[in-house]
Amino acid sequence: MNRTKIMKEQTIDNKTPASSGVIAVKVDDLTVAYNYKPVLWDIDLEIPEGVLMAIVGPNGAGKSTLIKSILGILKPIAGSVTIYGKPYKKQRQLVAYVPQKGSVDWDFPTTALDVVMMGTYGSLGWIKRPGQKEKKASLEALEKVGMLAFKSRQISQLSGGQQQRIFLARALVQNASIYFMDEPFQGVDATTEIAIINILKELRKAGKTVIVVHHDLQTVPEYFDWVTFLNVKKIATGPVKDIFNDDNLTKTYGINYKVSIQE
Amino acid sequence: MDITEYIKLVFTDYTLRTITLGTAILGAVTGMLGSFAVLRKQSLLGDAISHAALPGIAIAFLITGAKDSNTLLIGALISGLIGTFWIRGIVTKTHLKSDTALGLILSLFFGFGMLLLTFIQKQPNANQAGLDKYLFGQAATLVESDVWLMAIVTGLCLIVMLTFWKEFKILLFDADYTQTLGFNTKFIDILITTFIVLAIVLGLQTVGVVLMSAMLLAPAAAARQWTNSLSVMVFLAAIFGAFSGVFGTAISASQNNLSTGPVIVLVAGVFVMFSFIFSPSRGLLFKQIRFIKNRRDLELHKTLAFMHHIAETHEDISHPHAIKLLNNFQGYTRSTLQKLVDKDYVQLDGNMWSLTKTGFETAANLYTKQSTEDE
């Protein structure tokens, strides 16, 4: 409750990176292959605490694979991942994941509130059922994404943007330090996109680290303060203002890419 | 035989009581577990498991030489489990899709089972007669101990389901996410699958290899039509399954020479048909009714909006206009006009119409209201 209030009072500003110099996520020599074909090749990546980072790259560059490998959903053939210096398995409670919206069947018989409550299952552990405390936290998360009015809606009766907000609320309720999001802006309208990016900026303001697989290159400088270029290999990673340039874009996308960076 | 007589018989006649209880319990447990299979999009899994159980039955008979149903069911269980884990193995280790893996295992195991059955039938052993009842099931062979076994497995299944309800639910909805939360998804998955295999194996004697998957799917598919809550769906599926068993047994018992298994499956099918048509939210009937109603409303709104458009040009909104004006407008019919009059949106005076104050306001708010409702 307190946290919500504090976050609301803060103004949204993306000019000052909140980075404290601590490394939140460290990826070493990560290689992932499907069927002998490498999808990710020898990735070294350090993500500082408190950044709002975009992972960009063409289709098939391994962006989702990178996130899934960090989260242990996919098994890499080589390499290691640490979260604040420890293996992911020991740090699960620090990490929240927003999968691609299309990865689940939205006709599943359940309500919006129920899906958000799933975010509390991790801290509950085995067998224990969510109670009043979990319900309250879930309702707060729904309110934060502007979906409180839809809490009893069957999830198939929500629009694509609303479904995405539900997924976001489910991650928010985990109260994590690091958020991984797989294309949260895919197929959402402008209003929802703004609502989502404001929440992500609030998260960063609160000192959280947010990593987003992103497709719209035009909005990278506006939304993010950190960026990783990926195309099977890591092309570059760093502050948007330093490395988001035509050179890296061309290296990543293989065509002569010109993007006008708005200051 | 009339109904009261039959009901009396169910409570007094040992055989009929045993069969009714057995099919009811079987229907309930398969309905419950079937909900999970349907929601995991593993509808074919039940079919594959039941077919995969056949060679197990044959091999168990070949080894023991006895037709004891428990021994044969253990054989069925083992080969059903082997089939299931091969399917899982094929899906995870190769690039074949699960429907291919299911179809492959289903036909391979069933073919092998049939081969063994024909081999057994050629044996001089007099004991071999009747093994083929596992193909289509024979409820009449159920004895009290079979029913007890079903009840125990159903009870166990209920306990496990209630204990791990939260884990089952989240795995069914979003397996990857479940894994990131730290749950051992493999364990949950194996738990669900093992119970599905158990339920299927228990049903083989009654419903048979070929039709068993319908027991799993039909109650669940019917139940899904009536609710948007997982717990209600599982509960309804159990009820539908149980009633299919009871009604199916009743129909086959009151007619001569009707095999129980197929009748139960057909009754379950009737539940499905009924649910597909008459469910209020998802049923075809109400969908069609809603569709027609929406179209009528839309015609009405369009006409009203058109009238508003004309009326707007005058200072006096109730300025009368000729009905002829509307004739060129598509969507206008005499009955829509009459409906607008009934709703007190429009006044008629001879060949002239005029918007009332309420009509004008409603028309003005028509589209703005709709867009706020959407949000």
Write the SSE topology.
The complex is a heterodimer of chains A (263) and B (375).
Chain A: H1 2-9, E1 23-34, E2 37-48, E3 52-56, H2 63-70, E4 78-83, E5 86-87, E6 95-98, H3 112-117, H4 121-124, H5 132-144, H6 160-172, E7 178-182, H7 190-205, E8 209-213, H8 220-223, E9 226-231, E10 233-239, H9 240-243, H10 246-253
Parallel strand pairs in A: 3-8, 3-9, 6-7, 7-8
Antiparallel strand pairs in A: 1-2, 1-4, 4-5, 9-10
Helix pairs in contact in A: 5-6
Chain B: H1 3-12, H2 14-39, H3 43-64, H4 69-93, H5 98-121, H6 133-136, H7 144-163, H8 165-173, H9 175-180, H10 185-207, H11 212-224, H12 230-254, H13 260-278, H14 284-311, E1 321-322, H15 324-327, H16 334-342, E2 346-349, E3 352-355, H17 357-374
Antiparallel strand pairs in B: 1-3, 2-3
Main attributes of the structure:
heterodimer, A: 263 residues, alpha/beta, six-stranded mixed beta sheet, 10 helices, 32% helix, B: 375 residues, mainly alpha, ABC transporter involved in vitamin B12 uptake, BtuC, Arc Repressor Mutant, subunit A, 3 strands, ABC_BtuC-like (chain B)
